[in-house]
Amino acid sequence: MVFTESRPYRTPAARSVLAELGVVSPTSDVEQLSDVWNPGDDVIIQGSATLAASFWDETRISPGEDVWLVAVVGCMPARTRWRSQAQFREQDGAWRADIELKADGSELAVELTADLWVVGPGRTGSPNPLNAIHQSAKLWQLASPMSLRLERDEADFPTSAASFGATGRRAVPWGIETASDAEPQWSISSAIRLFVNTDLEICQEIVDGTAPENVYVAIECDIHLAVLHFLAGWRNTVPADRMQDIADEDYGSLAALGSSIASSLGLTLEEGCRLAAEDPINLVGRSREALALYRKSSSK
Fold first, then answer.
1. Where are the alpha helices (DSSP H) in the chain?
2. Which of 111, 179, 234, 237 stands 20 to 30 A from 5 (CA)?
3. Rounded to whole angstroms, how far apart are CA atoms 278 and 274?
4. pLDDT grade, residue 274 (50/70/90)?
5. Buried b vs exposed e over 175-186: b needs ≥16 C-beta within 10 Å?
6. Phi, then psi, of 45 in degrees rounded to 5
7. Are 174 and 219 in contact (CB under 8 A)?
8. CA 111, CA 75: separation in Å to the nearest integer?
9. Are the C-beta atoms of residues 122 and 137 closer than 8 Å to each other?
10. Mapping DSSP to helix (H, G, I), strand (E, B) and coil, where does residue 165 land?
11. CB burial of residue 133 (10 Å; 0-12, 13-18, 19+)
12. What is the pLDDT of residues 61-97, one digit of tens each?
């Protein structure tokens, strides 16, 4: 567990709430989470908090009124948020709450943030009795959310395992998806992702790296086409020279990935985007050829 102590929200004292927040699954130190987390794994957060006696005086809330500990976990790249709450109860003279929250591994990508709040009937100071109490006021929160990095910088193409049946996707082994509002300068891990269908037996083989070689060739071809097709959609907005500048300025951007793919196919980025938009069959053929040659030379 990671011990965190912070000031109450909009209250003067520094020790009104003592809180702990940490990861219980996968089992790992927060800093090493990316070494043990695999796409599709759930992440379970556990938190607890104790209210000091001064908390009631500072907030002007009477002991026994409904006060809640709220855990909030967010995954910005996946645009997903989870929330859970537990009521503070008196235990051996201390007011304490414990909470556990599971973030669904099928919806996780790149990184998480985890936060703790104390929420209750905050006194507003209004002379109007109808407005004197805000029933769901945020009385306290961590000084800063805990950041949980899920993927290593040197990790392979961003990948998540998910049930395609449960998420309304077609019943295929895998799919490449780009964020609807992604732009060429976005990071690869935030803009595009390979989803593997957990409904099919081959899913585990793909994730473990034990699937037949032709499967990985097909996946790479799909990635080539998806990336260049996405960038081709920006041709009327971002001139070719500017697209290349974006790629050169940030090697972690989607534009840089597209430039690298095009180069591996013997094309400029502009040519690769044109083929993706106008002649995708030709692009797939070039991709398969290039991958076959690469694998042949790598096996020597």
1. 33-36, 53-59, 188-191, 202-208, 213-232, 240-249, 254-264, 269-278, 280-298
2. 111
3. 6
4. very high
5. bbebbeebebbb
6. -105, 140
7. yes
8. 6
9. yes
10. coil
11. middle
12. 878 788 889 999 988 766 788 999 999 998 888 889 9
Region 43-50 average pLDDT = 90
Structure tokens at 264: 């591996």
For position 26, what pLDDT does the model report?
81
Which amino acid is located at 174 in the chain?
A: W
Q: Give the integer Cα–Cα distance in Å for 9 and 120.
A: 12
The DSSP code for 233 is: T
Enter the DSSP assignment of 237: T
Report how far residue 190's alpha carbon sits from residue 196's, in angstroms, rounded to the nearest whole number.
17
Is 4 in contact with 21 (CB distance < 8 Å)?
yes
Backbone angles phi, psi at 38, to 5 degrees: -120, 145
Sequence letter at residue 86? A
- Report d(CA 244, CA 65) in Å as an integer: 60
Q: In what order do the strands lie in the sheet with 159-162?
A: 159-162, 192-197, 174-178
Strands 17-25 and 89-91: unpaired
Three-state secondary-structure class, residue 96:
strand
122-141 pLDDT, tens digit per residue, is 776 666 666 656 677 888 88
